[in-house]
Predict the 3D structure of the following.
Amino acid sequence: MVDLQGPWTPLLGRLTLQEIPFDSPIVFGAFAFAATLAVIIIGLLTYYRGWGILWRDWLTSVDHKRIGIMYLIVGGVLLFRGFIDAVMMRTQQVMAAGPASPGYLGAEHGYLPPYHYDQVYGSHGTIMLIFAATPILAGFMNYLLPLQIGARDMAFPYLNSVALWMTAVGAGLVMLSLFVGDFSQAGWVGLTPLTEMSYSPDVGVDYWAWALEIGSIGTTLGAVNIIATIIKMRAPGMTWFRLPLFTWTALTTNVIGLTAFPVLGVALGLLLLDRYIGTHFFTTGFGGNFMLYTDLFWIWGHPEVYFIILPAWGMMSEIIPTFSEKPLFGYTVMVAATLSIGCISWTVWLHHFFTMGAGPIVNVFYSISTMLVSIPTGVKVFNWAFTMFRGRLTFTTPMLWAVSAIFMQLIGGLTGMMLAIPAINYMTHNTVFVIAHFHCVAMVTIFASVAGITFWFPKATGFKLDEASGQLVFWLFMAGTFTVFTAMFGLGFDGMPRRLAYIPYASWRPLMIVEEFGILLYCGSIAAFIYQIVVSVRNRAHNLVDVDAWGTTRSLEWMTHSPVPAYNFAVIPHVNARDEWAWRRDNGLADMLPEHYEDIEVPLNTPVPMFLGIATAGFGFAMVWRIWWLAAVSLAAVFIIIIIRSFGGTTGTVIPADAVRRTEQASRRKRRQNADNVLGDGVMAFAVKPRA
Amino acid sequence: MGIDNLKPWEHPEIKGASEVQYISGYALSLALLGLSLLLVRAHAGTTVVLVSLISFISILTVIAQLILLFHLDFSESQRWNTLTLMLNVPLLILSVGLTSFMFHTLYTHVMLPAMTVR
Amino acid sequence: MSTTSGHGQGSDPSKAVLWAESDHEHDIISTRLLGFWLYMLSDSLIFAALFTAYEVLTYNTSIAGGPTPAEVASPIRAYIETIVLLTSVLAFGLSMIALKRDRPRMVMAWMAVSALIGIGFLGMEWTELAGLAARGSTPQRSGYLSIFFTLIAVHGIHIAIGLLWMGVMLAQVARSGLTALVVYRMANLKIFWLYQALIWTFVFTFVYLRGSV
């Protein structure tokens, strides 16, 4: 065991009352905000008698659609937190430029002391990549995949729920670090040897590492599930080259998730061994090699980049054809491009540390392999363009987001090609030019996700989001993006390093004021988004949709009701064409109903994944604070829960054919007659109760 | 989900097991690894030759185990396992191989020769 | 690829089958075996990452004046461990043969044999590491010893989990016989157990033999 700075007791480990930062006004404000929100949510749940619904329909559910929505909620909450971090960073930098800049709240310059600012940028990166983008995409994949391939559920519904809980526990640990103890001050990549015990003696790095470890278990389990689902659960006639493109990208992305996340687990595991028992993997002495950490981290890290971007491209490939009223141009080439990007993603990771100095041969190898990525990516951009060429374009909100995502892809991709040249990379390494580049790429995911939310929202709830306010959200966000990142590219060309709590040159200030203005536009966009949700829920009676919400949709998920019933399809469709729903609609088969219904087997709800989540959360918390007894107890609890469950019997139940027929007929009738009730139980848990 | 297989032991993935394969897989693995051991103990060749030889033998052993013990082939019941494994192996080679390449080059550029011996 | 219809591979709409005949049976055993196989592929990347670290941390600079691979890893001892582990695997294979023939008692008997030999293997791994540590070659001594201990310990943890799993399966076979749930778990356990021998092949070659070349 290693020597700890500060007190340690057997009962509470390193945890003392001083670890709760009462003294910091910012953290206290965040705590007050979170506590108020929690009180409001608990109050609303109690007032509307929502606890039973929350337990029955959500927390214990193994339905892929509900799990998908819960993933989206986790991701959405964390996205908000990550956004607040971004606002804090930009505000600090604009306030702390130049030696004359004043300091507030105990900081020498700006309002955040360096140790606090460092935690903010570390948590921004960690949250945005691992606990916002990843759950949001996992949510889309969970919700859409079984529907797109014509299945009733995922291959392993129970495992699906476990994966959700692991992700939620990881996210929970990051959130907890705000109020109890500190977060890592070493950036989201956790640069060694800075993350070693000698340089980061507090619990920040432990929080970061355990949150990532636990979250990545969730991602790996989710990947197993999604790949098995796509291989084994396709509807009859759904051949490989009839799969919707989103399904293809989900498959590729999860192959990456399955194979890359274990490497992250090892990198962090070795780091934790250094921190907990004093081994010498990444230390500066005793034969450790800290570049080995960087190597292992980016073996995971680069494929992770594609993990995040591929489903976004999949969503764009669904949305653009829908609003161009044309099939996707070059489907086969798109599939090939997706797969080849998945392969190339494994051979490029050194471009994150060209400056390590491995020599020209190594750098040239990785430079060329990085540039190879641009070929399939370029193919995709051209295919989207050709899909729109001579199409009947409708610029609804989802289409606006999807088309702008192509622009962001171009900017992000071309600056990426600049960075792939080692000679340029040596100049721009660790400058905000790199930051601007990967934010442009990450924006593709954000743009496509918002497009996806707007596009599939009616499928999940039965009504569309308000169009006018949606356009406002889009234009504000678009303006914000270009304002912030154009200025940031400029600062990057000027050589401004990343991760600065204090900016020595006052001459960089004007561009940072521009960035701050862009951030204000972003804030306006978030406000508009909240307004959009409120308006949409209030006016939902005017925005009700039928099966096919947009009238020009193409894939299988648009064949079933909106909102989708628990069993997805009353009768599993037999697939005849690539865009099955468009094919049926064009051939006048859209209204054909099945002749008879059969009994449907659905899995039973189970609270076991939640118990596993609680035990894992206990384990993570105990390891962070080195409370050994609690760690042992909760780890034992995990094993015992798994073993006890394995002795259980059947876990399924049957919906009789009669009930299916009744539900089918009722939902048709209801859709025509009672407009106000069409919300369905899909959104009852969080929507305002409809007025009678 | 319901349990539909009335005689689960007749499932194709269970029926594939055979004594001959298990025993020959056992014997072949031990023989091949024993050969490696003998080669190393006898110092039969230069470092490069020996390392290449034992690497080759270990890969042969693993292939023998995959066929004889895991019963991997391209039959209906096994083809997905075989295919996913074949897609997985390049990743293992890439992560170990490229790292090895990169650190070997790095060390020869930046370190004293004595430190880069293995 | 059909280019005329614009939908690719579209069939003739007048003759098309629109609905599946019945809920087509998803074969629970093969789906779950595939899922577990995918998980094992994921696990193989854990070992790949550890071997990557091993590759980097065996240079002289990482030995840091401590014991060298030739002094730490004994190939003869490792070959005995190989024999023990492969014998356990063979016993598990015979248990799978008994499973194929629907003989639950033989399944249990061979699995118990396999587990006992497995415990022996785990004991050998343990005494080896404990002996090294007692001689002062602890994982805190050098980067090389850190990765050596970790690689063997991670393999050992896998073995320990496999043994725990065998205990659970002994109880389940005794309790409910060879139901589909038990059978698919046995098949998964087989993959898991055989996989440890597969990994050991690489550990034996690249850790024990490579160190003495």
Notes: Residues 23 and 29 of chain B are 10 Å apart (CA to CA). The mean pLDDT of chain B is 87. Chain B touches chain A through 20 residues (CB under 8 Å). The two ends of chain B are 54 Å apart (CA to CA).
